Amino acid sequence: MRMRPFDEVVAEHGAVVLRVCRAMLPVAEADDAWSETFLSAMRAYPDLRPDSNVRGWLTTIAHRKAIDQIRGRNRRPWPVDPLPIDGVPQGKGEAGADERALAALDRAGVVNELQAALDGLAPKQRGAVVYHYLAELPYAEVGELLGTSEAAARRSAADGIARLRTTMRGTPR
What we know:
Elements: H1 6-24, H2 27-44, H3 54-72, H4 97-107, H5 110-119, H6 123-134, H7 139-146, H8 150-169
Helix pairs in contact: 1-2, 1-3, 1-6, 2-3, 5-8, 6-7, 6-8, 7-8
C-alpha cells in the first residue's frame, strides 16, 4: 500500500492538530507547536506504517510538542506587556469555516473565557476534553495518550465537560 503525499495529510489533519494545540496553549505558542508537530511528522512520515492511525499519531506528536512548549515557558523570559492578538493568525492560507467561527467567538470574548476555563481543569480532564471533543479521538486512544484506561478517559472527559459548563455558566458576558 502506497503512502499518501504528506501535503494531503497536512490538509486533512491540520485543523484538528491546530485545535489540539490551541486548546493546550496560548495562540502564539499553539502556532509554534502546530509547526513543530508537522516538521517532526514530516521527518518520520516515510517510516510510518501504511495502516497507521495518522490522526492519532499526529495528535500524539502535537500533545508532546505542547508539553515541550509548556516546559519551555520556565526557560524563557516573560513579556512585560501582553502581545496584541488580532483574532485568527495569519500564514495558514485562507480562513476556513473553523477559523471564521473562532474569529466570531473571539470577537465576542468567548475564546478567552473558554481558554481560561480549560486552563482551570485538571490535566487529565483537560487532555480528555481536548483529545475527544476537539481531536475527535475515540476514548480508547484518549486513554492511551493520558496513560489511563478507556473508562477513566470517559470519566475524565465527563468531569471536564461538567466543570466547563459550570464555569462558563458563571462567566458574565
